[in-house]
């Protein structure tokens, strides 16, 4: 059993507390009363509830610096008294909306520091940081979080109606921040004001390259190798995307040490869904073998800066598509097209998921409607075969004149 960290909670002792990881210091005088200290410097007074002899939820009774240690102790004693009397320690959600509650900005920064920056990939960190700093902090950062209501979040969502997708992402990010705060006991359970905010409808883009488009791409990529405007490494990257179904970043960040031509596989250590191995065909092996290596650069697709990988593949792709007369196609559509061709060749959804590196079955299910087309085509072929026999027999007059035995 882990040893409890105790202290006499007072203004002086709390201000002196500093930690490297999230720690709760329990009061040596009032059992169940404590102060939760975060590496960011934030400190919140808490009460540990108990139910049936077991630890229950942890109730936040104030933030240090806004609520004094003495006031927090008084609130904690009230909560503990209600527990001993068999009453709800927090009878109303508003009871946790104490004047000293954390602001939305404080919760957002804490979430970025303790969750996003620790668990997420750099691109995701950048995205969430942008949303917090550009949209959440200016609009609602100074608002006391327990007082933020559904109407205010709806107003924020509506204010971003000019960018409907971003509006949804802002509310979704706020919802994640709120859930994390609930888990830490900083906010009441089931108090998320984002829950019933009606999101904007987002049109899902599904673009699959047809056979003729693939042929035009092939010709244009071959021509681009001898023409100015598109580098040989950009051409190789596009070919690898088309032939492997990999994500753009998986190819752009690929290092030569991750390529095993003898075993015919790519070992992706930092894929979106974790480390995975991608089997490669002879055609992919040939593309890799023909890529010029840049001395001192470990990347298969080198960028302009020394030792770095290529960052911008969108411009070369747009130029290739323009020359090939292919409209409204994104780089990510290479991945969709890989999946659709696999389905057309009879591969099942589980296998497609493995080829694409999907961690969740639900992700591959987006291609189910294509699978239904393949099943329908099979059903038509089988029915046609049987119909040919029974219709031919019927037309040839091979009919029974009596009822079957």
What can you tell me about this protein's structure?
The protein is of the alpha+beta class. It has three domains: 6-96, Integrase, DNA-binding domain (Double Stranded RNA Binding Domain); 104-183, DNA polymerase, domain 1; 211-366, hpI Integrase, Chain A. Helices cover 47% and strands 10% of the residues. It is built from 15 helices and eight strands. The chain has helices at residues 11-16, 69-84, 104-119, 122-140, 150-159, 164-183, 211-224, 232-244, 248-252, 282-289, 314-324, 333-344, 349-356, 361-364, 368-395, and strands spanning 6-7, 23-27, 33-37, 43-51, 54-63, 259-260, 265-268, 276-279. Strands 1-2-3-4-5 form a five-stranded mixed β-sheet. Strands 6-7-8 form a three-stranded antiparallel β-sheet, with no helix packed on it. Helix 3 (104-119) runs antiparallel to helix 4 (122-140), helix 7 packs across helix 11 and helix 8 runs parallel beside helix 12 (333-344). The longest helix has 28 residues, at 368-395. It is elongated, with a radius of gyration of 30 Å. The protein starts with 5 loop residues before the first strand and ends in a 10-residue tail after the last helix. The model is unreliable at 91-99 and 399-405 (pLDDT under 50).
